[in-house]
Each structure stands twice: as C-alpha cells, then as structure tokens.
Amino acid sequence: MVCRRHGILAGFSVFLLALSVFAVEPAERLPDPALEARARVISAELRCLVCQNEAIDDSHADLAHDIRVLVRERLTAGDTDTQAMQAIVRRYGDFVLLRPPVKPSTWLLWFGPIALLAVGLIGTLAWLRRRPAVAAQPLSDVELAALDRLLKDDS
Amino acid sequence: MRRLVALLPVGFFLILAGYFAWSLRPGYDPHELPSAMIDQDAPAFDLAALTGDGRVAREALKGQPTVVNFFASWCVPCRVEHPLLMRLAAQGKIRLYGIAYKDKPEDSNRFLAQLGDPFKAVGIDRDGRVGLDFGVYGVPETYVLDAAGHIRKRFVGPLNEAAVNKELLPMLRQLGGS
Amino acid sequence: MIVELGHFCLILALFVASIQATVPLIGASRRHLGWMATGRSCAIAGFLLIGSAMAALMHAYVVSDFSVVNVLQNSHTDKPLLYKISGVWGNHEGSMLLWVFMLSLCAAAVALFSTNLPPALQARVLAVQGMIGVGFLLFILFTSNPFLRTDAPPANGQGLNPVLQDPGLAFHPPFLYLGYVGFSVAFAFAVAALIEGKVDAAWARWVRPWTLASWCALTIGIAMGSWWAYYTLGWGGWWFWDPVENASFMPWLVGTALIHSSIVVEKRDTLKTWTILLAIVTFSLSLVGTFLVRSGVLTSVHAFATDPARGMFILILLMVAIGGSLTLYAFRAPKLQGGGLFAPLSREGSLVLNNLLLSCGCATVFLGTLYPLFLDAMNGPKLSVGFPFFNRTFVPLMVPMIVAVGIGPMLAWKRGDLRGALQRLWVASLFAVVVALGLLYVAYGSHVLAVLGIAVAAWLAGAVVTEWAERVGLFRMSLGDSIKRAINLPRAAYGMSAAHFGLAVFVAGVSASAFSQEAIEVLKAGGSMKLAGYDIVLQNVDRVPGPNYTADRATIRISSGDALVATLYPERRFFPLQQQTTGETAIRTNGIADLYLALGDADTAGNWTVRAYWKPLVPWIWIGAVIMAFGGMVSLSDRRWRVGAAARSRRAVATAPAE
C-alpha cells in the first residue's frame, strides 16, 4: 500500500517499504522456468518507483508487485523482452529504467568517463615527453659513499 | 598552458555549484515525476460503478474536459484533499470522476458517506490495473483529460489551493471547460 | 542544565575555532612563534569543548530527557541502551555534532602528534581545520542545533526507526565520519602547502599517515554499512549504487589514488600538483556528499529529513571551502617546482595509471549519481541510473586497474622492465588459469564474467605473493637468509601486500555472487525444501516478545544428508510504536559460503514464506575489506612515520658531501 506523503514522512515510509521485506513471491513465479528467467532479467532493469534505486525484484512495495505481475503477463502473452519493457516504459517513462537509454542527452553520462580516461592518458604521455631525458653522469666517490650509506638505511 | 589547466578544477566546481544552487530553488520538488502519457490517449478502461448498475468507461469521459481523481479509503492524504474536491464540485467548476484504487467497494462507500461524494461517477479499480495503465504510482493522483480524451496533466499527491488556482482551473479554462 | 552546558560548550567551541582559523595563519606569515602556537592550544581546547557537548547530548539521550527536541524526536524509554546512545547520531542534528566532533578530534591529533612538523606548516594546517570547524559550527548553531528545548515535553518520545536499531548500524556512522572528516587533514596539508608554495618529499611523508588512517576508517565504515545491508534487507543485496552510498564511495576511490600518488611524491619528488589536487578533491567529495545527503536535491533511502534552507547553507560552505581552495590551487599550483621524470613503463607509470583509472572510476560514479539532477535542472527528462549502468561503466574500468595492482609493484622506479615482470608472474598466471578452468568446469560455461572476475582475483593474489617472494629472495637464497629478509622487511611493504591481497579477496567475493542459488517456498510447519545440496526444514514458528517489539520466530533446521548442519532462527518483528514490521535474517557462514534465511509473510492458513539463499564467497567481500583496512593499519604502524622526516633530513644534511 503506497500513500503519498510529503516531507519527513516521504523518506521515512519509503525507507520502510524498501526494507520491510523482500523479493518475488512464490505465487508470482511463472511455471515455465525459461519465461521466469526472462522475467527476472527484465525485472533487474526496472526501478521500483516508490523505493530509491532498487529494482522491482528487491522491493515488497505493492507497486513493485503490480509491475512484476504485468511483466510476467506480457511475457506469457508472447511479448519479446523489449516489448514487455516498453509496456512499462510507456506507462512510467524512462524513469523506470535503471539503465538510462543511450540518447544524445545521455552521451555525456555513458561516454564521459571513457573520454576522460583517454584525455588523461594522452595528457600524461604528453607530459612525460616534455623534456628529453638527461644522460646520467657517473657518480663521484663521495657521492658513492653517501649512496652506500643511504642504501643501508633505506630498504 | 599550465595556468589554463590549473583553472579547470575551479571552473568545473563553479558549474557544479551553479547546478546545486538551481536545484535548491523554492517550488522545485525533486521527487515529482511527470506523467509519461502527457498528450497521449488516456488508457481505455471499463469499470463497474460504485453506485448503481452502470459502468464507468473512458468513452463516457470524452466530449468535455474532465478531471479524474484516483483515491482510496485507506489513504490519509486523500482525506486531506477531499474537502477541496467537494468545494470544487459544489461550485460546478469541474467535471469530476473518481476511481477507487485497490479498495473494497464497501470501504469506498463508507469513505464517501463520511466525507461527501463530489464525483459524477466512481469506477471500482479493485486490483489497481487501471491505475497501472495510467501510470499511477500512489494515491491520491489527479489527471486532467481534454475533450478528446487525451491526458494533459497529472497532479501527484493531494491537491492544494495553490495547485488548483494556479494550474488546474486555468488549464480547464484553456481546454474550454466550465 | 547539562544540556545547556553542552550548548554553551558548542558556542565556546565556535569562538575557539575562530581564533584557531585566524591567529596561527597570521603568525605563520609573520614568523611569530607565539601566535603559531595558539593553533595547538585552540585545537585541543576545541576538542575538549565539542567532546563535552557530545557527552551532554549523549547524557540527554541516556536519561531520556524529552524536553530536548532532538531526544523527543528520535528516542524512547523502551529503547535498549545501546540504541539510545547510537540514536545520538542517528538523526541529522546529532550526526552533524558527530561530524564536528571528529573534526575536532583530527585537529587535536594533529596538534598532539605532529610535533616534528615545522611550526609554520603545523600552524597553517590547524588554521585550515579551524576554518572548516567555524563553518560547520555555524551551520549547527544556526540551522541544526541539537540542544533546542521544547516547553511541553511529552511523556515519551517518537522512537528510533526500528531498522536502525542494530549493532552494526550503531557503529557504522562513527567510522564513516572518521574517514570523511579525516581527509580534512590531507586537505589542510594541501592548502597549507599551497600557501607556503612548497611541496616536497617531507610533506608527502607527513601527510601519508593521516591519509592512511582516514582511508582505513572509511574502508571499515563502508564495509560495515554494506554488511549491515546484507544481513538486514532480506535478500542478500549489499550495494545499490544509492546516491548516499556513492557519496561515501567517491572519497574512498580518490583517497586510494591519493595514498598512491603521495608515494610517488615522496620517492620521486614528482606528481606534486596532481597530488595536491587529489588531496583537495578527496575532502571536497566528502563535503559534496554532506550536501547531497542533507539538502534534499537527491532522493535516497539514506537521506535525512531535508530542508532547502540547510542545503543553501551547506552550499555556501562548499563555495568557500572548495571554491576557495581550488582558486588557491589555480594560482599557486603552476608555481610548484616540477620533479623527476620517469618512463611510462615504470612503477611511477603504473601508479599514474592507477590514479587515472581510480579517478575515472570516481568520475563514473559521480556522473551516474548526479546526472538525473543535471538533466532535471535543465528541464530534461527524468532518468534513473542504477546497477545496470554501473556494471557496464565502472566495472570495465576497474578490471585493468586490478591487473595493474599485480604488475605495478614488480616494476622498478624510473624505468621498469614490463616483459621481465610479466615473465616473473608466470606462477600467478598459471594459478589464475587453473582456477578459471576449474570454475568453468563447475559452471558449465555459464556466468563467464564471474569466472573471469574470480580468475583475475586469483591472478592478483598470486602476483602479490610472487612480489613478496621476490623481495625476500625465496628460492634464490638459502631459506635462513630469506626468513631474515622477511623479518626485516619494512612494515609498509607488508601493509601493501596485505592491502592488495585484501583487494583480490574482495574481488573474488564480488564476482562469485553470480553463482548464488535461491529457494523461495511457502511452507507449513514441518515442511521442507532443498537448496544447493542442503535440506531446509521449517519446524515451527513461535511468538516471542522483545524489549520494544513482538517477533514471530521460525525454527529452521538445515541438514546435509543425515547430518545436522545448523539450526537458524529468522524472525519477523513488529514494533507497535511505529507500527512497522522488519525482518531479522538468520545467516550461517563458514567463511567461504553463506546460508541465508529470511522469513516472509504468513498467509491466512498459517503457512509461512521462507526464502533461502546459498551465497558462495560472499563473506570474502567483507573479509577482503577488513584485510585491506588491516594492511593500511600495518602500514601506519611502520616505524619510519614515527621517526619523522625531521630526523632524516638532519642526517641527510650531515652526510651531504662538500662539492
């Protein structure tokens, strides 16, 4: 049962719903294990809208239960995985997808880190090549003695 | 060049802080979820009516701008918004239909007997399937449909005076409602 | 009365912090020893004052003084004592007090244990910490005061959320906050170094113990939170990429990068500007995390009751602290002298790669957490970013990093021999291949990614052992000589090996979750089900009262064949005050796999839903984290930190040859 509450109670009750108990009820499971497996895979990508950042399989909220049942109905009716997910997205929008779609508005999200890595690697290599390596000069005897002493101290 | 690179972190932070400041603006509710079905046809439904033998179906709602309110007897904020709905219905300002979401008919009846019945008709959505089709994720939620039966706006949570005066009534006027 | 004293101490602490923030700073630029020394006395005084405030609030909770609003909102006489005490920080105001308490603790520690720092540096470090303290004390006193009283105290309080009444969760915030706030020391050192205009190997040596200690605390804090989620939530989930979890993970990632980067500064006198930036960014992420949790801009199960006015105050704090330090960085960093060069394929190179990958990993988590907010602010669509995203973006970045962790320590400084290192790692590679083949045989070709993960973990474990074996010359010299070498290895070397080994254990634990099995059935008394070769029998369910709840406790016997393996008692608890039900899972672990039981609802006929999970290698997730933290602590205990850089530089001066 989900009621709309604002302010303090919003976070509070949502918190409870998320933690009050668990996942798929025995009665919800489909008799066909292949279909059930597909349902699980799809459910892992669907967000429980009244909990935070949890998939519908991980929530005891009524709404999560309803969506789980709807997914299984669509699969039993012959929908493909994509069609079943689209049925949920049509009702609740992209917000219900735990994996954000790859659109121009999310390119920064999906490709940002790897672009940053590329920039970092190129920048590092450029920085490393900024000066030619200076040829090492041989050490004087005094320097050799100091080196010896330091090596015995250090590890 | 080094100076330019050294300015990047603070520049990035200023942009970030700008976003944070913008998201703290009054009136912005990060929890609010706009309906995914705006400007689309309201989902078809055909429910038994709470009183009498009739049915409450989407086709009946077409022809004039309509307000559909999802409520339940077990929902506390629904009680909070109900007097407002009563007042609006009494003033004849809205054409209001109700859908009893996941509620036993006797409980819905008792709710309306206690607080008054502002609805032209109430459909019984026992298992919440119609709610699911609308994209409801809790009660109360209120939808504004235009004359052609498209969803134009959704209010999440109990209606308040501000939302009614600033958004609901103007939208109805714009759609050509009473 | 005690509460008022506590309140007064907090106000005094604000004044002390203001002095700490200004006088030592002026003293450092004027070379006035007396003024510089005020930093130390202020830091210690501040710690005593805030400690007293903390004690006062704790006292109010323990005696259940409901005239204090904070106690009224979060406590109840029926609560067990442990949770009365931990309830102090289980709410916004109390947790902010814990925050400044940790801050004052760190400042006092710097004042007491860094006597070998040059006075100017110590003065500046303490001044920066004082500034942070001023900011947060103002925040507490003006927007989040825990000492406010009410005129009409009720007979009893509103209680603590039942889910939070748990020993694991009671201690999770103190460790977490010690980690978050501990990084303020590294931050203060960085800002002080920028003001002074000098970063050298000595600086890196001074910073390292503080960074390590914070990192250990944060590792333990995050691991505790994750472990708590695992045994509380009822299906064995332990990480959700929830915004608040991410807010703790980001400083950890960058903090790890900082530890490694400071090693390069110390040993090779290079990467200075980068390390300073990391030190600033790590603490900045802690601050941003504080903002995210308490301002209401992000929705999260963890978020405290939020208030945009508080959010605005913290944002201003952020602007001053982060904006100020980064601006200082923009102007001063280019003036820092660059240091030694190194070839890309060298130990420095691998540490740079480590830093790059960790930073990009942090950027991934950052983007994933804040992107919905950004899009929404630009009137874009509402998005969710969850597990599937992070699996596809964060994990691929971490795999090469784990490989680098194995190879890096085998490379020499300045110019390493990659081929040689890879050749010397043949034992580790063989071990990994054997493990992979064995698992593939067991898993019949499914769960390929999990197998890969465990194989990589096995390779890393082998690489760590190989590196150690090389250092002690195992098989190259006599056993006696090897043992002697092993005993004389500096502790930091063992710390490194332990921490890296812990990482391998952790990765194996995470990867193996693909192999878990579950059985969910509705059972009546005496009913049974099978899971992973075990028989699980529900004997009966009893009603058992608790201090502030009533519980339905199930007795479940698990046997393998004829032998009884364990009897477990999962529960469902009902808390009448809050009208909530929570579950208590029952877990049987043998260190290698967990048998996890949770009790669901009863149906009208009195049959109960029982959920059983078999999770192989899951304990290794937390064992791995503990080993990592242990490695950090071993490193910390290295005698070289306590000897201090001053002693070394004296010796170095004495031996410097006349040219």
Give structural notes:
The complex is a heterotrimer of chains A (about 160), B (about 180) and C (about 650). Chain A has about 160 residues and is an all-alpha fold. Chain A folds into two domains: about 10-95, Orthogonal Bundle (Helicase, Ruva Protein, domain 3), CATH 1.10.8.640; about 105-155, no CATH class. Chain A has helices at about 10-20, 35-45, 60-75, 80-90, 105-130, 140-155. In chain A, helix 2 (about 35-45) packs across helix 3 (about 60-75) and helix 3 (about 60-75) runs antiparallel to helix 4 (about 80-90). Chain A is elongated and about 85 Å long. The model of chain A is unreliable at about 1-20 (pLDDT under 50). By secondary structure, chain B is an alpha/beta fold. Chain B has a single domain (about 35-175), classed as Glutaredoxin (3-Layer(aba) Sandwich). Chain B has six helices and seven strands. Chain B is elongated. The mean pLDDT of chain B is about 90. With about 650 residues, chain C is an alpha+beta fold. The model of chain C is unreliable at about 645-659 (pLDDT under 50). In chain C, the strands form two sheets. In chain C, strands 2, 3, 4, 5, 6 and 7 form a six-stranded antiparallel sheet that branches. A four-stranded antiparallel sheet of chain C has the order 1-10-9-8, with no helix packed on it. Chain C contains 21 helices and ten strands. Among the domains of chain C are: about 1-165, no CATH class; about 425-515 and about 625-630, no CATH class; about 520-615, no CATH class. Classes of the chains: A mainly alpha (about 160), B alpha/beta (about 180), C alpha+beta (about 650). The interface of B and C includes residues 6, 17, 22 and 34 of B.
